[in-house]
Amino acid sequence: MSISSINPVNGEIIKTYKEDTEESINQKIDQAHKAWLSYRKTDFKVRAKLLLGLSKLLTERKDQLAKLMALEMGKPLKAGIAEVLKCASVCEYYAKNGAEFLADQTISTSASKSYVSFQPIGVVLAIMPWNFPFWQVFRFIAPALMAGNCGVLKHSSGVTGCAIEIEKAIVDAGFPANVFKTLICSSKAIPKVIEHPYIKAVTLTGSTDAGKKVAEQAGKHLKKTVLELGGSDPYLILEDADLEKAAKVCAEARLINNGQSCIAAKRFIVVKPVLEKFTSLFKAEMESKTTGDPLANKTDLGPMARAELRDELHQQVLKSIKQGAKCILGGQIPAAEGKHAYYQPTILTEVKKGVLAYDEEIFGPVAAIIAAEDTEDAIRIANDTNFGLGAAVFTENAALAEDIARNKLAAGSCFVNEGVKSDPALPFGGINQSGYGRELGMFGIHEFVNIKTVYVK
Predict the structure, then answer these.
(1) What's the structural domain count of the chain?
(2) Is pLDDT of 335 > 80?
(3) Whether residues 210 and 348 fall in one domain
(4) Are 69 and 162 in contact (CB under 8 A)?
(5) Catalytic option among 87, 91, 185, 262
(6) Which of 8, 184, 365, 401 gives 259 a disulfide partner, CB atoms 3.0 to 4.6 angstroms apart?
(7) How far apart are CA 342 and CA 329, in angstroms?
(8) To which H or E segment does residue 228 belong?
(9) pTM for the full model?
(10) Is residue 313, in this structure, part of any structural domain at all?
(11) Residue 273 and residue 166 share a domain
């Protein structure tokens, strides 16, 4: 059996990889466990030095790795470089802060001494998607390695080259052999990987359906999971918002990574007094983006990751239009590139409950504009979803904005006058059908450790 990486620009096979057998998968997991038995005893200073070296190496290889992303999943070069540098930053962040996050915490009790100790648990399985092929992995592996854990990665098959380069970078940075292993396999192999006794926990970024399956499989074996799943992020545009700024931020937030991001803006909920003006400004911003070859420096939008994903997206648009939405921009497959994976930036207006673009996640460069009567109606619409990953509100009333973000929007991350994004210092994750658990920050490094009580009388 084999796995191929396919260029979404032209549909050509980049490289074909031999798929791991069940025996070779088990061997890699065994190697990672054996490595952990020694690595868990290393000092925080040693781990920090290794992470800083990895950060430096990633920075040096940013151009090479960005080109690989462009070839395997269509990410424009400038976006790929930014992604690699963000990976470098998360390695540096945990190198500088990990020891503090994992330091013993003294608790006052009736004991002569009582405290909480944070200890590594072993080998963590990461199941990762293609849309941010480096960042998704590094926001897991940087804290895992700093905590003294080891990892095995089942990456999306289309970015196998990226997965191999991640393992190579960790080896080249000087980490002990086998602390991180890449499994080259299909999703069919995952249940047995989860079942393996040396796999102690699982983290997945992907669709809600995939998360449910992994949670079920892990639950059978009482293994902890962290799930970062789909989203249908609402962006609220209130009457006193800076509309020009909002339109610019919203266009960038919708088109990030060619629209293929769980935290990309999906639903733009605009109060009626500013609906017409915002829509005009937003359309101009969407039209200004340059679509083209991801290897060209001026390209803002490349192709979607795979042609079948583009075709599924187009069917969602057509169904939404049939259900009553109005398409005011895009909505077509470019004729000259129809056999590949490009899709035009698209705007749907008059989107109401019952229209697919209102109720479902749209994973591509398609924006849904929803009219709201007033602020309270906008909040109601924003929360009228099964998801709960990110949300944003645009208004010049700082007190109102913070109240809405803190108290009224149901999401794991709420931003004011800015697009939703992840930051190494801030916990990241969702609620409801967007998953559970947190990555990044202090909370992220605590997800996969044994939070142990020590009580001495």
Answers:
(1) 2
(2) no
(3) no
(4) yes
(5) 262
(6) 365
(7) 15
(8) strand 224-228
(9) 0.96
(10) yes
(11) no
Buried b (16+ CB within 10 A) or exposed e, 421-431: bbebeebbbbe
Q: Can 439 be counted among the known catalytic residues?
A: no
Q: Do 12 and 142 have their domain in common?
A: yes
Residue tagged 């017409």 (tokens): 276
Q: Which residue has the tokens 């289309």?
A: 158
Please give the Cα distance from 310 to 313 (Å, whole number).
5
143-169 pLDDT, tens per residue?
999 999 999 999 999 999 999 999 999
Q: Is 262 marked active-site?
A: yes
Provide the pLDDT for residue 336.
64
Q: Are residues 225 and 283 in the same domain?
A: no
Q: Which amino acid is at 39?
A: Y
Would you place residue 80 in the very low, low, confident or very high pLDDT band (cuts 50, 70, 90)? very high
**pLDDT surpassing 70 at residue 266:** yes
Q: Kindly name the residue from 72, 165, 167, 228 that is annotated as catalytic.
A: 228
Vertex 170: Cα angle to 166 and 173 (nearest 5): 135
Residue 216 has pLDDT above 90, yes or no: yes
Range of the domain at 32: 2-229+432-456
Say yes or no: 162 and 265 in one domain. no
Q: Is the pLDDT of residue 253 over 90?
A: yes
Please indicate, yes or no, whether residues 166 and 276 belong to a single structural domain of this protein.
no
Contact 95, 53 (CB under 8 A): no
- List beta partners, residue 152: 125, 181
Q: Are 202 and 152 in contact (CB under 8 A)?
A: no
